[in-house]
Every structure is written in C-alpha cells, then in structure tokens.
Amino acid sequence: MRKTGGKWIKTAALGLAACLAWMSTVGAGAPAADASPAEKTETAAEASTAETPSVETAIPYWEDDSAAMASIIEYVVSVTDENSPDYKEPKARIAVFDVDGTLFGELFPTYVDTCMMMYRILHDDTYEEPDPEDKEYVEALEKALLSGEPEPDYDKSGGQIIAEAFKGLTIDEYRQYVRAFMAEPAAGFDGMCYGDGFYKPMTALVQYLAAHDFQIYICSGGERTFLRELTEGTLDDWIPPQQVIGTTFSLTATGQGDKAGRSYTYTADDEVLIEGNMSFKNQKMNKVASIVQEIGVTPILAFGNSSGDFAMAQYIVQHGGKAYMLLCDDTERDYGNTEKAAEFAQECAELGFETVSMKNEFTTIYGENVQKTSFSAPEPAKEPTQAPEDPEEEALKPAA
Fold first, then answer.
1. Do 213 and 308 sit in the same domain of this protein?
2. With 80 as the cut, is the pLDDT of residue 53 above it?
C-alpha cells in the first residue's frame, strides 16, 4: 500500500543565545565547574545539537526509501553545509527544471500546449479562421493521439502552429485564454483540470530547494508566456516569471505594420501582439544556449525527463553539477511505458545521470483524488470555461 505523503523530519539546532554571558565566563559550551552531572550532560547535549545543521530527511510525496530523494538530500546538505568541501554560496545554488514530463504531466494524451492547440483549432467556435491545412493535420493528430496510433507527419512544427493560431492577440488576451483553458477537464483523467497537472512530488522538491536558498529556473520547450501563466499561483512563489525560460514567439506592436522592430518606436497608443511566428525553439543545445545567455551562471542541478534535456544535463554535469531524469514508468496512475522507461534509464546511466522512478519513488503523482480513465475527444465549445515542458520534438511537440 502506498503512503499518502512523506514527512518533514528536522533536527532542530538548539539556541544558546540566552547563555552567551555565562559562556563568556566559563568557556563556550562548557558547563560551570560546580555544575551537577545532570547539568553537565544536558549542556553537552545542547552543544552537540547546536553544531548539527538542520536537515530534512524526507520530502513530501516521495517514498521513504526513494534512492533519488536520498541522493538529492545528500547533495543539498553537501552544498549548504559551510563546513563541507562542496559548499556553495547561495548565489551559486541554481537549479533548472524542464516542465513537460518533469514538473507537469505530458500525457493528456500529449503536451498540454498541444492539447490547447487542438482545442483552439478544432473545438473553439470563437476561432473563426484556422488555416485549412493546419486544421486537417490537427484533426489527424488528435485522432492518432486518442487512439494510440502513430502521429502524422507535417511540414510545420507544433510551435509554429500555435504561434499562428494566436496571431493578433495581445499578451493579456493570450494569457487569459491560457488561464481559461487550464480550467478545462484534463483528457484521460477524472478529478483534474489541465491547470492541476503538476506532479506533487516535484512541486514539493521545488519548495525544498527554495527553502535551502536555491534559485530555481524553468528551462523548457514550452512557450514562455504560456509557461508563466501555467505556473502562476502554483510555482511562482519559488519560480518567479523572470526565471521562466522557454520557446519564444515573435511579437509586434499594434501600430508597427511591416516595419522591423529595430526601426519602429513603440508609442503610448500601442499594445504588444503575438506576431504569428515561433522565433526560437528552446530544445536540446538551445537549452544550453539559453542557460548561458539568460542565467549567466552554470546551474549545479538539472531535472529533466527526455533526450531533449540531455544537452543541458551534460552541460551541468560537465561543470561539476548533478542531473536527475524522471522515468515515466507508472502505468496505473499515469500513461507510462515501462519498456521505453527502461531504455531511457540505461541511456541515463551511461551518461552519468541519476533517475527517478515515478512508479516506485512517488507516493502520488497528481493527488489521491485524481484517477486515470481513458481518452475521448472533447465536445465542441463556444469558448474555454473561465477559470476561478516537454515539448521535445519539433515536428509536433510545440512550444517541460
């Protein structure tokens, strides 16, 4: 039987501030000469405890015997203990996370932004002019995904289709659309909307790292504005918007017309619009470039789940850090594939990355109230219900 969550178990350091004056006369941590044996024992215990740093021995929603959790905690202790040879100043404690399949589900039955793309083009009656060829492809794509058939080929990437589907929307309008879509029921699950698709153990891990003065960045193939809306209200306390790195859509101003951005001056009457092109796909080597250019410091921890994350993981390991890769091997609570997970685990071992079994090391994935069901096409709607990663392959997987 699976446990419902881990426990934070802390060894509290006892403060001796009230005894400072006394300690100055008899020596730091030493009992008074005339102290009783019991008082001497108590003082020695307090001194010993005070020298022990506060350490968590578990992270919520991880199994108590998780090897990956133990490895992560051991590493965090080593870089946060000032007496450790591996100690890192807080400014050097940087971790990067992919999103789809690492922090967030990617099997609804595919990446969440692809699900939104299918909704926009096929099921949103407020979208009046989808490209006919795009629509034909997306119809075939949805059918294949819901039936488990091979995905069709197309000469346009998923990221480009999304950029075109939202062309002309202001950034606020686009974010509102994303927020509304997040309230739609997630395909293949009961008790969960798309916005609820975060892996609870990984969210707890983000909080754990933040509590130990890590700066946490997202470095995902998802489009960055989409990701900022997705994480608002869930992870933004620990990963603020400026630490979200992703694929980029080109932008324009309402009055810009055909002028290049370098030749146009934004005015007080302008608004920023989605121009309709994917200008940068944050994938593979591009993730390394993003880390170098946007963070400027090499992270010491990387978390991913696919070969699309290998580049940034190898870059970080090359510079002395550690990399962890999730294995989507849970077929009961998610739509995992044990054969592919085993192959991926072997690849990771050869590259020096540690792996995390979602099946064996997570006490829950989305929460105990979420149940895996089956896939069916969504009903057409006038507009998304108003609300209260990793896109890894260019041909389909659009803008963790």
1. yes
2. no
**Residue 83 placed within a domain:** no
Task: Using alpha carbons, list the distances in angstroms from residue 62 to 312, 321, 372.
Answer: 25, 22, 20
Q: Are residues 98 and 236 in the same domain?
A: yes
| 109 and 47 co-located in one domain | no
Burial 276-304 (b: 16+ CB within 10 A, else e): bebebbbbbebbbebbeeebeebbbbbbb
Query: DSSP E strands: which ranges in 183-263?
Result: 189-190, 215-223, 244-253
pTM of this structure: 0.82
Q: What is the CATH number of the domain that holds 151?
A: 3.40.50.1000
Q: CA–CA distance from 368 to each of 146, 199, 363 (Å)?
A: 24, 12, 9
Using CB atoms within 10 A of its CB, is residue 206 exposed (0-12), middle (13-18) or buried (19+)? buried
Radius of gyration for the chain, computed over Cα atoms and rounded to the nearest angstrom? 25
Number of domains in the chain: 2
Handedness of CA 347, 349, 351, 356 (dihedral sign): positive
Which amino acid is located at 99 in the chain?
V
Residue 220 to residues 117, 172, 181, 291, 399, Cα–Cα distance (Å): 18, 21, 20, 11, 9
Domain assignment present for residue 382? The answer is: no
268-289 pLDDT, tens per residue?
Answer: 999 999 999 999 999 999 999 9
Report the candidate in 107, 103, 110, 106 with the shortest Cα–Cα distance to residue 198. 103
The reply to whether 389 falls in a domain is no
Domain that holds residue 252: 92-372
**For the chain, how many residues are written?**
400
Residue 186 structure tokens: 């997630």
265 DSSP 8-state letter = -
At residue 127, does pLDDT exceed 80?
yes
Distance of CA 112 to the CA centre of its chain: 13
Same domain, 24 and 155: no
Q: Kindly report the CA angle at 1 between 368 and 201, in degrees rounded to 5?
A: 45
